[in-house]
Amino acid sequence: MLARLRSLTARWTAVVPVAAVVLLALTWGRDLPAVGVALVTLVLAGAVLAAVHHAEVVAHRVGEPFGSLVLAVAVTIIEVALIVTLMADGDKSSTLARDTVFAAVMITCNGIVGVCLLVASLRHGLAVFNPEGTGAALATVATLATLSLVLPTFTTSKPGPEFSTAQLTFAALASLMLYGLFVATQTVRHRDYFLPITRHGEVITEADHATAPTARTARISLGLLGLALVGVVGLAKGVSPTIESGVEAAGLPPAVVGVIIALLVLLPETIAALRAARRDRVQTSLNLALGSAMASIGLTIPAVALASVWLSGPLVLGLGATHMVLLALTVVVASLTVVPGRATPLQGGVHLVLFAAYLELAVNP
Question: Residue 328 — very low, low, confident or very high, per pLDDT cuts 50/70/90?
């Protein structure tokens, strides 16, 4: 019976990513009826679950922290492509990159971190992680967010919360350099800082896990992971007109659409991080959350900087006062959470309250 269930799981996780891409090709650029939206939503949910499954297979094969890096970078690259595509579409694109990146930072640093710390601490008594690796990741996220999203509000070379060409070039190059330096630190020089640890602070190595999948299985899963992520982001864009109509009909601000899309795009990482937290691998959860925030800034800003060469219209990156306060509070609270290397349900709850405040202010600015 168990063998049959595994066989069934392997089949649907292989079929759904392909079905998602086929459905994306059939529905791209078309107005969908209610039945079509329901079908797209159903396949979108299946693609999210399939992406999580294949990400875990790849992660098991390559080990941590490479597994977390694969999922974070894959999602972010496709997300960046979606942002650039949407920026080329309409006149509401001037703040799209800023809103999307900030939404990703708040979702990952408060939503994913908060729920993972809460689940792990309630299930295992304490959420235990490595403060050296997590602190380095948080410092990089804070620096990238400040350079790219806060400074444009205060620069004077160009009117409005925008960078001049020279400033935008510097921000893009600095983002790429910091992200590349962090990846080298995470995967080569200080890889042990980003591995899960036991209650006594001992690193959990690959030898402590079950037998890893074969190289062929991992390659197949990597390909299916790419298809699933393309399907997730593409189908999310496909249902966005319906979401926009619903948001407009409810009288909510247009920024809510960006939050909903960001939540859909980050759903695979959220589920993968939650599963790791339930297994008491909180470091893996934090690698996914902070790595996604870092990749979102470090890859999006250079991409939109390059795209701004041929895109018309302004590129607004600077945050407003309310969002700057939320970002500053997030960095302070996250720093206090990271320093001890362990967290109780209280820390998880504090991050979730910050995330709820962000959602509340998105709905009622």
Answer: very high
Which pLDDT belongs to residue 321? 92
1 pLDDT tier (thresholds 50, 70, 90): very low
Q: Among 49-58, 89-98, 343-352, which is the least confidently predicted range? A: 89-98
- Residue 64 CA to residue 264 CA, distance in Å, equals 25
Does the pLDDT value for residue 177 go beyond 60?
yes
How far apart CA 21 and CA 365 sit, in angstroms, is: 36
Residue with tokens 């190059």: 173
Q: How many CB atoms lie within 10 A of CB 36?
A: 17
Q: pLDDT tens, 75-130?
A: 777 667 667 766 665 555 677 778 888 998 999 999 999 999 999 999 988 899 99
Distances in Å between the Cα of 165 and the Cα atoms of 122, 276, 313 are: 49, 42, 13
**Cα 249 to chain centroid, rounded:** 28
Instruction: Report whether 240 contacts 257 (CB < 8 A).
Output: yes
- Please report, in angstroms and rounded to a whole number, the separation of the first and last CA atoms in the chain: 53
Tokens for 154? Answer: 């205060």
Query: What residue type is 185 in one-letter code?
Result: T
Report, as an integer, the average pLDDT of 267-281: 87
Number of C-beta neighbours around residue 219 at 10 A: 13
Q: What span, in angstroms and rounded, lies between the C-alpha atoms of 70 and 226?
A: 10
Q: Which amino acid does the sequence have at 362?
A: A
The Cα–Cα gap between 57 and 60 comes to 5
pTM for this predicted structure: 0.81
pLDDT tens, 185-208? 888 888 888 888 777 667 776 544
At 50, the amino acid letter reads A
- Report d(CA 122, CA 220) in Å as an integer: 36
Sequence-distant (6+) residues with CB within 8 A of 57 are 213, 217, 218, 221
From the list 337, 285, 295, 260, the residue with the least C-alpha distance to 101 is 295
Q: What residues form DSSP beta bridges with 128?
A: 342
Closest to 81 (Cα-Cα) out of 59, 68, 60, 97: 97
SS3 68: helix
